[in-house]
Amino acid sequence: MSLVSFLTILGMGIATYITRASGYFIASRFDMTPRFKAALAGVPVAIIISILGPELAKGGTAEFISAGIVIVLAYRKFGLLVCLGVGIVSINIFRNLL
Q1: pTM of the prediction?
Q2: Under the phi-then-psi rule, with left for phi > 0, alpha for psi from -120 to 50, and beta for the rest, what region is 77?
Q3: DSSP label at residue 30
Q4: Residue 55 in contact with residue 46, Cβ under 8 Å?
Q5: Alpha helices (runs of H) in the chain, residue ranges in sequence order
Q6: Cα separation of 63 and 92, whole Å?
Q7: CA distance linking residue 42 with residue 40, whole number of Å
Q8: What are the distances in angstroms from CA 38 to CA 6, 9, 31, 50?
Q9: DSSP code of 58?
Q10: CB neighbour burial string for 32-46, b if at least 16 within 10 angstroms, e if fewer
Q11: Which residues, other chains included, contact 65 with Cβ-Cβ below 8 Å and sequence gap of 6+?
Q12: How distant is the alpha carbon of residue 81 from its chain centre?
């Protein structure tokens, strides 16, 4: 891995951490109702769907099969990292096989 790639990944990680930490810091200053907490809990799912939805819509057979596998794993309460890892591996396998 080149130094530029490493520094880019490190920078993105730091930016992500700062964004999340500042969000928790700001949110701790306010009283949140249960309804507002529930709305915030749904935000990550909405972001993931808005990113992956168009990719899946223009995808082919490999994408649909991989998405189905990940949906089954998520429904069965496997962790995010397991679902992400299986999704990455399965899409690469199916793209090469199909």
Answers
A1: 0.55
A2: left
A3: S
A4: no
A5: 3-27, 34-41, 43-57, 61-75, 80-97
A6: 9
A7: 5
A8: 36, 31, 14, 19
A9: T
A10: eeeeeeeeeeeeeee
A11: 90, 94, 98
A12: 9
Instruction: Find the length of the chain.
Output: 98
Whether the CB-CB separation of 90 and 69 falls below 8 Å is answered with yes
**pLDDT, tens digit, 9 for 90 and up, residues 69-83:** 999 998 898 888 999
What CA–CA distance (Å, rounded) separates 57 from 37?
31
Amino acid sitting at position 81: L
pLDDT level of residue 11 (50, 70, 90 thresholds): very high
Residues 14-66 have pLDDT tens digits of 998 898 888 778 877 888 888 888 887 777 777 877 887 888 888 899 999 99
